[in-house]
Amino acid sequence: MKKAAPLISYLFHPLIMPSLGLLIILNSGTYLALLDPAAKRAIMFVMALGTLIFPLMMLPVLQYRTLILKNGQEATKEERLVPQVIVLVLYIITFVYFKRLPLSQVIHAYVLSVAGTFFLVILVNLKFRISIHTAALGGLTGLIIALIFLYETPLQGLLMLTLLAGGLTGSSRLAQGDHWGAILSGFFLGLAVVLFTILVY
Fold first, then answer.
1. What percent of the chain has pLDDT over 70?
2. What is d(CA 145, CA 125) in angstroms, rounded to the nearest whole number?
3. Number of domains in the chain
4. What per-residue confidence (pLDDT) applies to 117?
5. What is the DSSP track for the chain?
6. Which residue range(s) make up the domain with 46?
7. Which of 178, 4, 32 has its CA nearest to residue 103?
């Protein structure tokens, strides 16, 4: 698992999950999937731009002094906070833009929940260790549960795959030094925030 752990962490990277979640919504078999294909592509592009492409463009700029390792030592909480806050701002801007689009409340709620989850992860990480990776997978799981609950859409198979991905990601983070408390709390935080936001929004 130690050899495969970095690959698994990249495959299920937190920055990929928001776009993947929107892709699931737009192909869920509900009325949300009835949008014009051109509109779907445009919405996906906006989501990917704000939550994946722009953050990936920003992170290398900050890598030398803020990410993962610095001169062979783990970066401090304060050093990690800089790129995390920048990504959070990009997520909030993405939500504000989506809010102005004439889309379903479910989509608005999902984009809001993505920003909300990341904000809470940053907040918790100021005092305790919590896994961003498993929080992202938990959020994806919460989204699928919400769609099943709201629309009775048959996404149980996808739910099982997401839980499997969550288990693999949790195991990879454990192999890379995270403890079970950070892994489980991250997963259930992401699940609760996304599920609650979509059901209540």
1. 86
2. 26
3. 1
4. 97
5. -TTTHHHHHHHT-TTTHHHHHHHHHTTSSSGGGGS-HHHHHHHHHHHHIIIIIHHHHHHHHHHHHHSSEETTEEPPHHHHHHHHHHHHHHHHHHHHHHHTS---HHHHHHHHHHHHHHHHHHHHHTTS---HHHHHHHHHHHHHHHHHHHH----HHHHHHHHHHHHHHHHHHHHTT--HHHHHHHHHHHHHHHHHHHHH-
6. 15-200
7. 32
Cα separation, 69 vs 47, in Å, equals: 29
Give residue 8's pLDDT. 74
Whether 7 maps to a domain, the answer reads no
Q: Which two tokens stand for residue 166?
A: 């969550």
What angle do helix axes 77-99 and 54-66 make, rounded to 10 degrees?
170
Residue 88 is which amino acid? Answer: L
The answer as to whether 129 is a domain residue is yes
Asked whether residue 6 is assigned to any structural domain, the reply reads no
pTM summary value: 0.89
**Is 8 a domain residue?**
no
pLDDT score of 65 more than 70: no
